[in-house]
Amino acid sequence: MFMAEESKTVVVKENYLVTGKAEGIVEIDVDTFLCKGCGICVEMCPRKVFEWSKELSEKGVHYPVPVHAEKCVKCKLCELLCPDFAIAVRW
After folding, report:
1. pTM of the full predicted structure?
2. Can you give the CATH number for the domain in which 30 is found?
């Protein structure tokens, strides 16, 4: 578990799941096993919630990490546009 720099988001990675939590605001899950690293969520997020991981997933791709979940406006574009159904947004 680590805190994103200058952020109120806590990012936790457990097995295949990366979760960005902004307490009282939103929780964003990225399933690294399902993600193919297409980047649609990174590019289409209007608030730039995601950054690329520094490590590779089991598939050998960099995956999005919701390091700025506190900026999320719950539009769910990332969840709706993900072709692999690898993202879930909850609040």
Report:
1. 0.89
2. 3.30.70.20
